[in-house]
């Protein structure tokens, strides 16, 4: 027989409730804010009793809230072991905080904030909130995700100002609610969208304050430092400086404001906030304390004044921290957890004049203001006070040209012959300078925009393939996101670091520089956005994505077909590296491979290899082996990976597309099975044969002339249409209209190509035209992956797509 299990799950622990009793063994007045109702046969409505005097064992519990069932067996391990351990630490930590026991606080400081985060998410309201972030999640998956994200807010709480206010001199004491970790924001009254059940104002908002009653007489209030210092001039709904989750930080454990003893009126104000943000139940040692609204008559924004810490005690918080270690390493951190110094060169000068409709947009996208941010709401815009991704790419390109000498008349052949260790190091220093550690790349990424057809390329990032796989797509979409192949040296070990060990990165630097030059005309016009790898800027994100990928790919073996594209490029790299060996080594290898070859013929083969190498734009015209015998590190960039690709696509509102068969098969595995509303649309779209052009100049000329615009608009309309309809009949009507428009625009596209053929193009601009088919996959409600939803919740932002609506795979048919 199965051992007895706990099915009565307390989401507010009994030991915590006992701290709010007037005496040992007494009871709590337990108030139901939404009591059950019953309609009698005569039509009369009866409301059941809304409050009871109950012991803590009867309050704030729900049957099977955490219980799971496997093949008829009941499992209560989450209640017993997960929350059992959390509550043990929480009990000791709260006791230490109340008693101001510094030694115990030191031991339990981290555990206290871990308990606080777990308490916020373990309630019915917290679980309901989490469920809204994961479309279609079941109970077991929900409880697993709860465990993954239960410490996400700790970093920002630790960096906040901490105050414990006392109600010891008040006749009114603090109450408990069914969601005791309460978030208050003066700009978010209970009827605001930010407070719509089960949401709370984001903790990352500057004006958000966390309230947590510790016992009958003590309440903890956490306030973001910049808001505490200057509450009047802050935008309460903008993110605090360096807002982030799951990051390491340093804080003074002994910093705690304890000077305020508040009176009954102020206790009632705090209780009113707690009650307004409860889900259904509140409790107190005395019944009259449960009705603070009878005593308080003021606006929501006025209630928050009682939460503000005294200005004269804020000196305990903030400032700069310098740490020295025995091995000579140092650590710096400012008041907001930033670990780098002055980055004023990345800030934009304040714009005093009014932005004109035809001026370049303030966000740095390169588009006109009227076509970009003019009509957007504040929450739909990326930040505008620092250099945008595009602007940093332009800055890096200028640095690249200066370091390599191309801006001073050097030729590409000169670069290949003269590329030095110093130049390689300087290029990567410049990249690191523009993307320093701690950069919040998420806030720089473009927001989802219904006016823009945006795609994210997930495939091989290489100058040998980028023209066909990315440039050619620029005729069919407004904007393409591509991962930047340059390595950020910030977190790389010295032996593999391109700044500290640059000799082994010459070949890779040459390759990446050429790719950057190929894309630059499109970057300048805002057609291509070359974004750095977010994992190179956030080690916690990197760790989570790496662990997710390891779990997903465990035991996987790639087929020869899946490996073929990357293998071909790798073999080409190896041949290039071998041909760059010193002349004596090459001669020896030729003689060894062809022992019967005469000396003259050997020299001819050697000369032929030299000519071939000279004609190869990716080949270094210098030995590929350094003085210390170091070879070249060869890197293949099949990026972003599965998780990062979905993460970025949902953040930016992009279609996910790839030319790589392995990546396409990964995507199809998470597609909905069975009949799909949009199956007919995807089949017919996949039958079209599209014309592509791999010549950058011709692509830009066609864009400039407005060619293929109709087809771009129809493809964008298809993207906007899918995912929002659940009725098959209505979907069929939409499909019929879209296919008619697609036929018309496709026919117009053929005329546009004929127009291009008649233009007097410079003879040096040879056309690299090819045909290809695009396979479309449009699952009902889009692609949704629980692990990616976790990344979006922990590392994303408020504005993102709930799923990837559409994925594409391009396959050339005559190439």
Short description:
The protein is α+β, with helices and mostly antiparallel strands. Helix content is 38%, strand content 13%.
Description of the structure:
The protein is α+β, with helices and mostly antiparallel strands and 815 residues long. It has two domains: 8-316, no CATH class; 387-551 and 637-812, no CATH class. The chain contains 25 helices and 25 strands. It has a seven-stranded mixed sheet with strand order 20-19-17-22-25-24-23. A four-stranded antiparallel sheet has the order 5-2-14-10, with no helix packed on it. Helix 2 (77-99) crosses helix 3 (102-121), helix 10 packs antiparallel against helix 12 and helix 19 (642-652) crosses helix 25. It starts with 7 loop residues before the first strand and ends with a strand.
Helix content: 25-40%
Q: Give the strand order, joined by hyphens, for the main sheet.
A: 20-19-17-22-25-24-23
**Count of DSSP helices?**
25
Overall pLDDT level: 90
Largest sheet: 7 strands, mixed
Distance between the termini: 67 Å
By DSSP, the count of extended strands is 25
Give structural attributes.
single chain; about 800 residues; alpha+beta; 25 helices; about 40% helix; about 15% strand; globular
Chain-wise SSE layout:
Layout: E1 8-10, H1 14-18, E2 28-32, E3 37-39, E4 45-47, E5 51-54, E6 61-63, E7 68-70, E8 73-75, H2 77-99, H3 102-121, H4 124-132, H5 139-149, H6 154-158, E9 161-166, E10 176-177, E11 182-185, E12 208-213, E13 218-223, H7 225-229, H8 264-276, E14 281-284, H9 300-303, E15 321-324, E16 330-333, H10 389-404, H11 412-418, H12 421-434, E17 454-457, E18 459-460, H13 466-469, E19 479-483, H14 506-524, E20 528-531, H15 539-553, H16 560-579, H17 583-593, H18 599-615, E21 638-639, H19 642-652, E22 655-658, H20 661-669, H21 679-687, E23 689-693, H22 696-704, H23 709-721, H24 728-757, E24 769-777, H25 786-795, E25 807-812
Parallel strand pairs: 17-19, 17-22, 19-20, 22-25
Antiparallel strand pairs: 1-6, 2-5, 2-14, 3-4, 7-8, 9-13, 10-14, 11-12, 12-13, 15-16, 18-21, 23-24, 24-25
């Amino acid at each position: 027989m199965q051992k007895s299990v706990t099915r009565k799950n307390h989401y507010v622990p009994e030991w915590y409730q006992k701290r709010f009793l007037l005496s040992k063994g007494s009871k709590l007045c337990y108030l139901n804010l939404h009591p059950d109702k019953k309609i009698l046969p005569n039509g009369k409505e009866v409301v059941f009793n809304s409050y009871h005097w109950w012991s803590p064992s009867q309050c704030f519990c729900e049957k099977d809230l955490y219980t799971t069932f496997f093949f008829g067996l009941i499992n209560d391990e989450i209640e017993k072991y997960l929350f059992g351990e959390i509550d043990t630490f929480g009990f000791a930590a709260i006791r230490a905080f109340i008693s101001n026991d510094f030694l115990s606080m030191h031991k339990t400081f981290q555990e206290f904030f871990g308990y606080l985060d777990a308490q916020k998410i373990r309630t019915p309201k917290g679980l309901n909130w989490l469920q809204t972030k994961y479309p279609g999640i079941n109970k077991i998956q929900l409880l697993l995700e709860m465990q993954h994200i239960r410490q996400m807010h700790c970093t920002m709480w630790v960096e906040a100002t901490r105050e414990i206010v006392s109600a010891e001199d008040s006749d009114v004491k603090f109450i408990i609610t069914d969601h005791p970790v309460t978030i208050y924001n003066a700009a978010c009254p209970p009827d605001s969208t930010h407070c719509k059940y089960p949401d709370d104002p984001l903790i990352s908002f500057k004006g958000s304050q966390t309230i947590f009653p510790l016992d009958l007489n003590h309440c903890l209030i956490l306030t973001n430092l910049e808001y505490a210092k200057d509450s009047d001039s802050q935008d309460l709904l903008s993110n605090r400086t360096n807002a982030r989750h799951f990051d390491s930080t340093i804080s003074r454990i002994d910093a705690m404001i304890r000077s305020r003893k508040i009176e009954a009126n102020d206790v009632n104000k705090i209780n009113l906030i707690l009650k307004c943000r409860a889900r259904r139940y509140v409790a107190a040692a005395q019944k009259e304390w449960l009705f603070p609204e009878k005593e308080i008559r003021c606006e929501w924004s006025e209630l928050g004044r009682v939460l503000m810490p005294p200005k004269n005690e804020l000196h305990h918080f903030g400032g700069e921290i310098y740490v020295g270690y025995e091995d000579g390493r140092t650590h710096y951190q400012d008041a907001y957890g930033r670990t780098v110094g002055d980055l004023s060169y990345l800030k934009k000068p304040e714009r005093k004049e009014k932005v004109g409709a035809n001026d370049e947009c303030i966000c740095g996208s390169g588009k006109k203001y009227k076509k970009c941010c003019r009509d957007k709401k504040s929450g739909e815009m990326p930040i505008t006070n620092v250099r945008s991704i595009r602007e940093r790419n332009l800055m890096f390109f200028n640095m690249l040209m200066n370091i390599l000498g191309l801006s001073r008349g050097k030729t590409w052949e000169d670069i290949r012959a003269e590329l030095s260790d110093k130049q390689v190091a300087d290029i990567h220093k410049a990249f690191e300078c523009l993307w320093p550690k701690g950069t919040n790349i998420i806030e720089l990424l473009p927001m989802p925009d219904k006016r823009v057809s945006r795609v994210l390329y997930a495939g091989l990032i290489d100058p040998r393939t980028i023209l066909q796989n990315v440039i050619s797509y620029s005729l069919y979409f407004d904007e393409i996101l591509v991962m930047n192949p340059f390595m950020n040296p910030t977190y790389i070990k010295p032996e593999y670091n391109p700044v500290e060990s640059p000799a082994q990165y010459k070949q890779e630097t040459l390759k990446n520089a050429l790719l950057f030059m190929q894309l630059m005309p499109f970057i300048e016009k805002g057609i291509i956005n070359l974004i750095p790898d977010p994992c190179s800027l956030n080690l916690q994100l990197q760790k989570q994505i790496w662990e997710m990928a390891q779990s997903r790919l465990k035991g996987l073996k790639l087929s020869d077909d899946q490996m073929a594209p990357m293998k071909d490029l790798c073999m080409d790299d190896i041949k290039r590296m071998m041909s760059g060996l010193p002349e004596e080594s090459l001669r020896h290898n030729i003689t060894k491979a062809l022992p019967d070859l005469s000396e003259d013929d050997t020299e001819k083969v050697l000369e032929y290899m030299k000519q071939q190498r000279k004609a190869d734009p990716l080949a270094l015209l210098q030995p590929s082996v350094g003085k210390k015998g170091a070879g070249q590190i060869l890197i293949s960039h099949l990026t972003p990976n599965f998780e990062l690709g979905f993460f970025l696509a949902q953040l930016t509102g992009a279609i996910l597309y790839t030319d790589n068969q392995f990546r396409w098969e990964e995507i199809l595995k998470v597609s909905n099975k069975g009949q799909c509303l949009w199956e007919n649309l995807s089949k017919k779209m996949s039958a079209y044969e599209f014309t592509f052009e791999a010549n950058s100049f011709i692509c830009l000329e066609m864009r400039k002339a407005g060619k293929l615009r109709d087809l771009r608009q129809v493809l964008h309309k298809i993207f906007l249409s899918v995912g929002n309809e659940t009725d098959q009949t209505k979907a069929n009507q939409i499909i019929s209209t879209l296919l008619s428009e697609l036929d018309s625009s496709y026919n117009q596209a053929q005329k546009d190509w004929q127009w291009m053929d008649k233009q007097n193009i410079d003879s040096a601009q040879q056309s690299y035209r090819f045909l290809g088919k695009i396979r479309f996959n449009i699952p009902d409600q889009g692609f949704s992956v629980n692990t990616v939803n976790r990344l979006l919740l922990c590392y994303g932002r408020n504005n993102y797509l709930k799923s990837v609506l559409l994925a594409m795979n391009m396959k050339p048919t005559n190439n």
